[in-house]
Structures are given as C-alpha cells and as structure tokens.
C-alpha cells in the first residue's frame, strides 16, 4: 500500500483540483446565474464527482507516467528526485499496467455519473460531448509517456496539462453547473493552466539532462535550460497578471484582493528559479509551486464567497 500511495504522487493532487474549485465557486457566485435563485445553480453532487473524476485522472496520469518512463528506461540512475515505483522495483510493470486499466475504468465511471448529475436525461448532445471529452482526457493521460508515439516525448505534454487541467477543468466544471460559458472565467482558467504547465516545466528543467539522454524531447530539452527559465517566468507572471485583470473586470472591492497573498510564495519561487544554477536543486520547488497554485485557487474562491454573501444580503434586504 505504501508503494501504491507513493506511485499516486499525492503532492500533485491539490494542483489538479484547483480548476475544479475555482470553476465551481464561480458558478455559485456568478450574479447573472444566481441573482434570482442563488443556490440552485450549485450542486454538491456535481462538485463531489468533479473532484473525484479529476483526482482519478491525475492518479491515472501519474501511474501511466511511472509505467511509460519505467519500461522505457527514462527513469534511471541519472534522474533527480524520488525513485519511481517501477524504477525501484517496488511495483512490477504488469501490476502497474493493471492499475492503469482499473483506474481508467473507475475514472470513466465517475465521469459518467458526473455527466448524469449535470444533465440528467435531457441535453443529450451535451452528455455525449462531455463523455467524449472524458474519454479523450483518459486516453491523453495514458498516452503522455506510454507507447512508441507518446506525445510527452515529443514536447506536447505542456499542451495536455494546459488544456485539461486549466481550460477543461475550470470552464468545463462551470458549464456542468450553469450550462453556459462565461467569457470572464477564461482568465482564471488560463491562469491555472499556465501555473500547472509551470509545474511540469519545472519538472522538465530538473530532468533536462536525463531526459536528453533517454530521448525524451520535452520543451525544455528542445529549447535548452536558459530559454526554459524565460519560458517559466512568462508562464508564472502571465498567470499572475491574468488573475488581477479578472479581479478588476469583476469589480472586486479592496478586501476581495486577498488572493494577492498567494503572490508572495509565487514571487519567492521566481527568485529561487532565477538564482538557480543547478537544475537538480529545483526539485523542492515543484511542491512549492503546486501548493502556491492551490493556495491561489482557495484564496480566489474566498473572494468569490465574499461576493456570494453580497448577493444574499441584497436579496434579503430587497425582500424586506
């Protein structure tokens, strides 16, 4: 059990649900959707199964990454960071393959239940679309490092993370509640996507030399460490700016800028990366950046909840 928990990489899980949290609370706080019935748009069933499906997708991705890099020899003695399950021999490739299949089926089942709670027996077109989207996410999570044509070995891992853990996670879950796409929500969705890509990029910066030897042509391997730093700065800084723009366009009050507290660890992270001369020492920054992203999502939703309270107060006073 200990080895399976390690293979699931628990430190990656808070990052994966950041978009779900933001998209869900935004659905509850959106005045255009909740001004008359402020609680009906939100569903705990949708929220719960959204979290469950996303966590399943993240664990599946971690298992598949362990399997793909393990059987290809990418995870070897040159790799920095904790040993992976297959690399260390704690879990056999056959056992990991079975775990991938089981996790895929459980994640798909969770996605189907989620879709049913969101659309019921109506909106058949939406149900089919999200079912196909869920299948695509599962296949993409596996194909990141598994197979001869694994796209993670060709530099497309960043795109997968940005789309599924940023745009799809945030905008998709919001659509499950509201049945509409709010253009304003695109800003935090992009931000979470960019920060998630930042975690992957940091991982690839750390593993640049071992990936190069193993033929894993990540974006970092393709552009080199120096340019990868610039790329990393652009990801994090752009994400921070977009959230501020989102707050301005949402007419946040002064006290609703509480999310700026998350910029403190993000700024410290950028300083650490800027000063770093040894990519192998970047390993602790992965956890810090992932938790900082999660913190940002939590603080941003706290600001949204403040907006929810305003809606309730206005309705109450209006009723009186």
Count up the helices: 15
Q: Strand-and-helix sequence, N→C?
A: HHHHHHHHHHHHHHH
Q: What fraction of residues sit in β-strands? A: under 5%
Mean pLDDT: 88
Structural class of the helix and strand makeup?
Answer: mainly alpha
Give the tally of structural domains. 1
The whole-angstrom Rg is 20 Å
Distance between the termini: 57 Å
Overall helicity: over 70%
Largest sheet: none
Question: Which parts are unreliable, with pLDDT below 50 for 5 consecutive residues or more?
Answer: 32-39
Question: What is the approximate shape?
Answer: globular
**Strand runs, count:** 0
Concise synopsis of the structure shown:
The protein has 15 helices and no strands. With 320 residues, it is an all-alpha fold.
List keywords for this structure.
320 residues; mainly alpha; 15 helices; 0% strand
Describe this structure in words.
With 320 residues, this protein is an all-alpha fold. The protein has one domain. Helices cover 74% and strands 0% of the residues. The chain is built from 15 helices and no strands. The chain is globular, with a radius of gyration of 20 Å.
Write the layout of secondary structure elements.
Elements: H1 2-8, H2 13-16, H3 18-29, H4 31-34, H5 44-72, H6 85-88, H7 93-119, H8 124-143, H9 157-178, H10 186-206, H11 208-214, H12 219-223, H13 225-249, H14 263-275, H15 283-319
């Amino acid at each position: 059990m200990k080895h399976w928990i390690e293979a699931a990489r628990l430190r990656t899980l808070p990052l994966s649900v950041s978009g779900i949290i933001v998209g869900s609370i935004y659905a509850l706080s959106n005045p255009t959707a909740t001004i008359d019935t402020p609680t009906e748009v939100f569903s705990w069933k949708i929220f719960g199964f959204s979290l469950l499906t996303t966590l399943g997708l993240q664990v599946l991705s971690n298992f598949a990454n362990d399997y793909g890099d393990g059987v290809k020899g990418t995870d070897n003695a040159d790799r920095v960071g904790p040993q992976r399950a297959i690399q260390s021999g704690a879990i056999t490739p056959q056992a990991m393959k079975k775990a991938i299949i089981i996790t895929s089926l459980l994640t798909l089942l969770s996605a189907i239940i989620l879709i049913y709670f969101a659309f019921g027996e109506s909106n058949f077109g939406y149900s089919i679309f999200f079912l196909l989207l869920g299948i695509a996410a599962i296949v993409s999570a596996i194909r990141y490092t598994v197979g001869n044509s694994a796209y993670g070995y060709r530099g497309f891992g960043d795109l997968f993370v940005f789309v599924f853990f940023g745009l799809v996670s945030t905008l998709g879950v919001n659509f499950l509640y509201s049945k509409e796409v709010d253009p304003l929500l695109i800003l935090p969705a992009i931000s979470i996507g960019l920060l998630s890509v930042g975690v992957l990029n940091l991982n690839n910066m750390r593993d640049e030399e071992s990936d190069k030897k193993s033929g894993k042509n990540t974006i970092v391997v393709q552009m080199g460490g120096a340019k990868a730093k610039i790329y990393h700065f652009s990801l994090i800084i752009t994400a921070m700016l977009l959230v501020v723009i989102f707050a301005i366009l949402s007419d946040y009050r002064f006290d609703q800028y509480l999310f700026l507290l998350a910029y403190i660890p993000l700024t410290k992270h950028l300083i650490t990366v800027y000063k770093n001369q040894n990519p192998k020492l970047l390993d602790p920054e992965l956890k810090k950046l992932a938790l900082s992203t999660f913190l940002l999502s939590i603080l941003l939703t706290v600001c949204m909840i403040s907006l929810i309270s305003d809606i309730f107060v206005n309705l109450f006073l209006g009723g009186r």
